[in-house]
Write a structure and sequence with these properties.
By secondary structure, the chain is mostly helical. The protein has a domain of 80 residues: Arc Repressor Mutant, subunit A (Orthogonal Bundle), CATH 1.10.10. 51% of the residues lie in helices and 5% in strands. The chain has 6 helices and 3 strands; from the N terminus they run αααβααββα. A hairpin with a 6-residue loop joins strand 2 and strand 3. Helix 2 packs across helix 4, helix 3 crosses helix 6 and helix 4 packs across helix 5. The radius of gyration is 30 Å and the shape is elongated. The relative contact order is 0.09.
Length: 195
């Protein structure tokens, strides 16, 4: 096996090129803080416009999530397609689906009452909503169509009772369901008379 060793000039030129590059990088990092480069500063009107469009996109995403949740919980007839125009910022054009009501005879079972929780479907709906993914209180507020204060009180009660977990590392806080919350959902689905 023959191995050909390059000439010493070739090896030396490779080493010199490497050292020149290393010295160039060293100079670049030493000089860079002293060179006043004009940074890309955006016009404040552009920043406001970007924030406005970002809020609009977030609202559309929340509405789409709400539509997905409604389509899972309410069976719509196939003859009435749901087409929503989000270019308008009103919901008066949007037809609300009528929920399917299953009437069962009243039973004489004792109802379990959980402390600090409001009675109604909102709690169950919120717990089902955050089962799939963590959500902020703003997302939940838009989805359940309640005031910010009502949503905040509801989420605080759910957090205090241990049904949801609050992630305080992000702003705004995100809420996710706990095993106790999942247990409550399964109890409600198996026995609809328990509130």
């Amino acid at each position: 096996m023959l191995v050909e060793i390059p000439d010493p000039e070739v090896i030396l030129s490779g080493i010199v090129a490497f050292l020149v590059g290393l010295f160039g990088l060293y100079l670049y990092y030493k000089i860079r803080p002293y060179v006043n480069l004009k940074k890309n500063t955006l016009d404040p009107s552009y920043v406001e416009r970007l924030e406005y469009y970002e809020r609009q996109l977030i609202d559309m995403k929340i509405r789409m999530d709400a539509i997905d949740m409604e389509s899972l919980s309410v069976k719509m007839p196939e003859s009435s397609p749901q087409i929503k125009d989000f270019s308008k910022n009103t919901q008066q054009d949007v037809p609300k689906p009528e929920p399917v009501v299953d009437i069962k005879p009243a039973s004489h079972q004792k109802q379990e009452i959980t402390p600090n929780l409001p009675h109604g479907d909102v709690t169950e709906y919120v717990l089902k909503l955050i089962t799939s993914k963590p959500m902020t209180s703003r997302d939940i507020q838009v989805t359940i169509d309640r005031t910010r204060e009502h949503t905040s009180r509801l989420m605080k009660k759910l957090f205090d009772d241990g049904y949801v977990d609050r992630n305080t590392n992000t702003k705004p806080y995100t809420y996710s369901i706990t095993p106790k919350g999942k247990e409550r959902i399964s109890v409600l689905e198996n026995n609809p008379t328990v509130v």
